[in-house]
Amino acid sequence: MKYRLLDVLACPIDKAFPLELHVLDEQRGENVKREKVACELYCSYKKTMLQNPGEEWVKYCQECLGIDVREAVLLCSRCGRWYPVMDSIPRMLPDELRSKKDDEFFLQKYKDKLDKRVIDKGVIGRA
Ligand SMILES: [Zn+2]
Ligand SMILES: [Zn+2]
Distance, CA 60 to ligand 1 centroid (Å)? Predict the structure, then answer.
């Protein structure tokens, strides 16, 4: 996924926006040439809410579109749920559809890199 996606993603449970993005692995691709600002409400690359984005955002948001976020955590600061990004795909499932096994695997794999709030929340999946 691109950083740009955080401009439109909200927590599926409580609709909180924006979500926090904690990147674990990213891959820099080609910068995308753009005439206009890419992010409209929230730029997750610069972690900034945008109200009247000026010229300087054009170059930042080229990065939003040029970098592929391969592994990451999306964290909802309202309900505390976290959602993994694996193989560039955000997995935004409701609790009952999450896999406990997958949650455990992800937490174990990145235990040294994850935000403490994610570790404290722990496994969310039940199935
Ligand atoms: Zn941006
Ligand atoms: Zn939430």
Answer: 6
